[in-house]
Amino acid sequence: MSSHTLAGRKIQIPGMCGGTARVFAGAFRSFGIEASASPEGDDETRELALKYLNGDECYPQVVTLGNFLKSTKEPGFDPAKTAVFMPTSPGPCRFGQYSHTFRRTLEQMGLGEVLVLSPSCANGYRGLGDIGPELFRYCWWAVVAADLLRKMLQRYRPYEKLKGNTDKVYWECIRDAADTLAIAENRGPKKFTDLAVCMGRCRDRFRQIPVDFTQKRLLIGVAGEIFCRLNTYSNDDVARKIEEHGGECWTADITEWVYYVNFWEMEEIRAFEGPWNLKMLKAKISDKVQKKEEHALAAIFAEDLKGREEPESVGEIVKEGEKYIPAHAALGEMILSVGKAAWYRKKKCAGMVDISPFTCMNGIVAQALYPKVIEDLGGMPIRTFYFDGTKADTDGEVAIFMELAKRYAGKEGLL
Ligand code: SF4
Q1: How many angstroms is it from 94 CA to the middle of ligand 1?
Q2: DSSP state of 211
Q3: Residue percentage of the chain with pLDDT more than 90
């Protein structure tokens, strides 16, 4: 019998990317845990959160907290039977504050009985007991599958002949992946095989969409802060606007961040304990297994995503970024965003947008480095879009950016 603190509770998964959160919830459901994905957000959720925050918090914190607070107003909400998934991490970034702010706000509201679950390998999957390692493995599969489905969405949607078809197929596939992962009887390799079969079904659904791939479109890289670049409410659905102005987006995946965390774990072990030890061996094996599983699922989409392959190692991106910022002194998304710009250019992108929350430390540092990157890339346009929920003319700014990308593509022969 498993021991975990979620027994009798319903857990809510924050909708960083709505699709990923749904598939992630499927991984929890496979252990009989009632799990649901929170929506990506709306103006009401933002207003709700701002009643309890002082305005200094990062925008993803506002959106995630507001979404959860909205759910507390639903009929039948019971704090003693509710949990919210809020990962944490050490380090300078304010992300480490999110779970504390959640707890403090809920206590202020008299909802202190809500369980804020912040498990990680580092804290022994706190709160998840003996299901932790297995659940985390399934969560990884959920992230990989959802990343691939989002890639397919972005690959097909700009070329669809009938507006709305690709979104419809994408959500069908998300539901299918979530339900496949949720099958309780399937465990371990059987669950993975079933997920692979599901991915094959999803690929075939995308292939049924009537599209016109003869259209000439500009390939635009999308980097920046992980929540904001993926949460369509937070970023005013900027990827769709880029598509409306003649682009096709290639957004940095969630898996990229996981590999970056692995990469740094190994760098730290090397620095403090040397290159050969048990910790390093474990970290290497775990990274290799994750890569192998990702490759197996990605292979199903190889033909459809030809030319949109991710780097073999996140070290490639870090190496590009190191030309502008010392990797050992600047941990976080800033080096990935800067490095990704150069990498995207090698992959024939005509420009890159960096999507960051207003006042995001990573966004600010990356933006300060972009003029040099732009110069080195022969003028490739890189535009930082900051978001904090206030209304801005994103469409107008995207239109200008796409004009610059068009000129650059013409000059570089990318059209
Ligand atoms: S990456 Fe930026 S927005 Fe995200 S927690 Fe860190 S500082 Fe805040």
Answers
A1: 6
A2: B
A3: 83
CA distances to 4, 15, 70, 322 from 79, rounded to whole Å, are 17, 20, 13, 46
The answer to pTM > 0.70 is yes
Angle 342-348-352 from CA coordinates, rounded to 5° = 55
**Rounded to the nearest 5 degrees, what angle is found at the Cα of 290, between the Cα atoms of 285 and 291?**
95
Distance CA 235, CA 40 (A): 11
Give yes or no for residue 389 CB within 6 A of ligand 1.
no
Query: Distance of alpha carbon 202 from its chain centroid, rounded?
Result: 20
Residue 269 CA to ligand 1 center (angstroms) comes to 25
Quick one: which atom of ligand 1 is closest to the CA of 98?
5
CATH 2.60.40 fits 216-253+313-415, yes or no: no
102 Cα: distance to centroid of ligand 1 (angstroms): 16
Boundaries of every domain in the chain? 10-128, 216-253+313-415
Q: Residue 125 pLDDT > 80, yes or no?
A: no
Q: How confident is the model at residue 1 (pLDDT cuts 50, 70, 90)?
A: very low
Q: Check if 94 has its Cβ closer than 6 Å to any atom of ligand 1.
A: yes
Binding site membership of 358 for ligand 1 (Cβ less than 6 Å): no
Name the residue with the closest Cα to ligand 1, atom 5: 95
pLDDT-derived band at 300 (thresholds 50, 70, 90) equals very high
Q: In the predicted model, what is the mean pLDDT of residues 26-45?
A: 92
Q: What is the pLDDT of residues 184-212, one digit of tens each?
A: 999 999 999 999 999 999 999 999 999 99
**CA of residue 229 to ligand 1 center, whole Å:** 12
